[in-house]
Amino acid sequence: MPELSTQSKPLYTAQKNNWWKNAVGYQIYPRSFKDSNHDGIGDLNGIRQKLPYLKELGIDFIWINPIYASPNIDNGYDISDYQAIHEDFGTMEDFQDLLEEAHELDLKIIMDLVVNHTSDQHPWFLEAKKSRNNPYRDYYHWVDATEDQPPNNWQSFFGGSTWTYDDTTQQAYFHTFAKEQPDLNWKNPRVRHEIYQMIRWWLELGIDGFRIDAISHIQKEPWDFEITDNQWAPFMNVSGIETYLKELKAIFNEYNVMTVGEASGVPHQEATHWTGDSGYFNMIFELEHCERIGELGSQKGSIPHLKQSLTQWQTSLADDGWNALYLENHDTPRSVSVYGDDSPEAAKALATVQLLLKGTPFIYQGQELGMTNYPFQSIEDIDAADTIHFYQTLLAQGKTTTDALKIAINWSRDHSRTPFQWEDTLHGGFSTTTPWLKVNDNYRMINAVQKEVETSSVFHYYQTLIRLRKQTEALIHGKFDLLSPEHPTVFCYTRTTETERWLVLAQLDRNQTTIDFPASWDYSNWEEILTTTSTKPLKQQMKLSNYEAHVYREITD
Ligand code: TEU
Ligand code: CA
């Protein structure tokens, strides 16, 4: 096989305006990345220590989950001060040092922007609660109610009513998520003004963009809206939202930064309003491909669903728009456990599929090592509020503790939140003290030091894939076409430009299978560029097994 160039600069140097199209991102969940001051919690100085590691991996930008002041009801997604760093993570000086050091290494930093809601401890809400005519009252949604009669029957994402009754003023306030996360009232121009000022403040600091949290929920239907089929419809991508999103876009444009919107509930048919030349964001995170398909209580993801749904998004954004590509994040279990069998082979095959699609790949911390789900044995080991709530609901429905635990942990967010496995030492080298969430015992085998030594490791495979992607125009801009759409386990597609055609082939299963290609192709014209296993020429009929993946290029000269 031909040697890949090891130069770190991509061949296609990013244009100023859309550098993110050629870039590979890396998501850091700061509580679990690296603890520098031995309190069991990851922090900003921990990230600073590990910048060389990220550089070695080959990524271009980091998205950091919220690091702002927060009571941590939803681990930082309940913000009490947008312009302060949570003391667990360090200080504003630490953040500025991190930003500067990252920039010196040519790494960009994207922050999480959480503006659908604040914490109930935010000064605005503390004021708003005081009386019906408090100047901050209209910063939130308040409606007349009684203790046992909420304004409507809408349900929150974290379980229970979207309304919490407040006895002092005898009204209820609205929350899409936990009751400690009251939704901001975007109809109020003062709210928007304050949010926009805060956004500018961060942009002036020199950050490179935002991942915009839960942004499809900021507009709500009228409170008497009748739910028919979709219980989330009253606050998912509701018409009128475009006014606010355009205002946001105008600010982002002024600073020429990268934006990725979390677009839950935005169907692919509407994606070009959301991303693309006239869209609100540079790219979006769609949530369809990680929907919980299959039996409740089974943690296996469906490969046909994954194929079908990723393909749908590739096709919808083929001519206008741009995808953000991910297989796991801080809200999902680990992809190697969901779509694979925890093996390095499965991790590599999934990486091949994800990183060579059209869009900007996001690698979630530890994914590049093949980190797996955690074998939770007790609800005591769980931190995620929604998992605990789900467990309690299952108990209330009459499930045994064993069954309730089994079902609740299957899709728990905590699988991906366990501490990063740096080395084969106590607590996986994450911290010298007991971490806030348990470390997976498999850190002895799966850790960064080990993976940097082993030449055939998942880590090295990610490095190679990232390099390959950045050197190859067809893998960045080429047209996507799915092959064998009906095959239950093989994910195979081509990426084509006027001058090149590439073929990406992965068997996402341990068993042996067969796949056929068109008889009209000239098979002597394809060279293998990369594989997860031993090399295999492309043939009209191929037998594949054990999560093997191959990447071929058609020779045209
Ligand atoms: O997640 C958003 C989120 O969970 C919903 O938008 C999603 O549509 C729903 O759960 C689908 O089932 C973000 C963060 O990633 C998450 O960690 C936070 O808890 C949440 O927002 C609230 O800020
Ligand atoms: Ca710490």
UniProtKB/TrEMBL annotation:
CDD domains: AmyAc_SI_OligoGlu_DGase (cd11333). GO terms for biological process: oligosaccharide catabolic process. The keyword Flavoprotein does not apply. InterPro entries: GH, GH13_cat_dom, Glyco_hydro_b, Malt_amylase-like_C, O16G_dom_2. The keyword Hydrolase applies. GO terms for molecular function: alpha-amylase activity. Pfam families: Alpha-amylase, Malt_amylase_C. Keywords: Glycosidase, Hydrolase. It comes from the Bacteria. This is Glycosyl hydrolase family 13 catalytic domain-containing protein. It comes from Candidatus Enterococcus mansonii.
